[in-house]
Amino acid sequence: MGKIKSLIIACATLLLCFGIITASTYAIFTDGAVVAHHLVAGTLDVTLERTKLERVVLDKTTGELVTVTDDEDMSFTNSPEANIFGIEGDEVVVPGTSYTAYLSLGNNGNVAFNYTVKVVVHGDENGESNALAEQLIFSATEGGETVASKTLSEIKEEGLVLYTGEMNNLSSEREFAVSVSFVNDTTNGTNDKAQNQEVYFDLIIEAVQKTASVE
C-alpha cells in the first residue's frame, strides 16, 4: 500500500511539472510595429494665357500698315483651335507684317516640368518649302532677350522646335513672348517671290514632367 501511494504522488508531481512548462510557453511577450504607407500622385497642371497681343497689319480701308494692340487677358488652356495671333480668315500679310503674343505659362500643379514651343507646318505635302515660309521669322523672347529666332522653313527642317524652357514646382508662372514677322527684304526681288504664297501652321506648347536622371 505504501508503494502504491508513492507512485500516485510521483505521478501528481510529474503532471505539475508539465503544467509549469505549459504555462511558461504562453507567458512569452509579443509586440510589433505597423508602418502605414500613403502615396499620392503628383499633379501636372499647366495653364496658358495671352496677356497682350500686338499686331502690325494692313488697314482694310487705307491699305497701309498700322499697329493694333489688345491688352485683354485671354485663356488658351483648353482652346486647342483658338488663334493665339488673332489672324482673321481674310487677312493678308505683306513685308513688315508682324504678330506678337505675350504669354504667361502657369504651374497649378506640384511637379517640375519642361516646356517646348513648337511650330507645326502644314500644307506642303511634297516636303518643299515656299518663298513665304522662307521669309516668315518666328522669334521667342524672355526677360527682354531674344532666345530663339528661326524662319518657318528652318523650324520645319530642324524638328519643329522653336524654344524650350523649364519650370520647377515652386514657380507659379513664366512669361515670354512669341512673334511671327514677314521680313522686309527687297534685294533681288526676294519679297516678290512670296506673292500669292500660302502657309499653314499650328503653334503648340507642350509640357512634360521632369524626371530623375539616370547615373
The main pleated sheet reads as: 7 strands, antiparallel
CA(first)-CA(last) distance: 89 Å
Give the CATH level 1 class: Mainly Beta
Quaternary structure classification: single chain
Nutshell version of this structure?
Helix content is 16%, strand content 38%.
How does this model look, in words?
With 215 residues, the chain is of the alpha+beta class. The protein has a single domain, classed as Jelly Rolls (Sandwich), CATH 2.60.120. 16% of the residues lie in helices and 38% in strands. It is built from 3 helices and 10 strands; from the N terminus they run αβββββαββαβββ. It has helices at 2-25, 131-135, 152-157; strands spanning 46-58, 65-70, 74-75, 98-107, 113-122, 136-142, 145-151, 161-167, 173-182, 200-209. Strands 1, 2, 3, 4, 6, 7 and 9 form a 7-stranded antiparallel beta sheet that branches. The protein is elongated and about 100 Å long.
Keywords:
single chain, 215 residues, alpha+beta, Jelly Rolls, seven-stranded antiparallel beta sheet, three-stranded antiparallel beta sheet, 3 helices, 10 strands, 38% strand, disordered N terminus
List the SSEs and their pairings.
Elements: H1 2-25, E1 46-58, E2 65-70, E3 74-75, E4 98-107, E5 113-122, H2 131-135, E6 136-142, E7 145-151, H3 152-157, E8 161-167, E9 173-182, E10 200-209
Antiparallel strand pairs: 1-2, 1-3, 1-4, 4-9, 5-8, 5-10, 6-7, 6-9
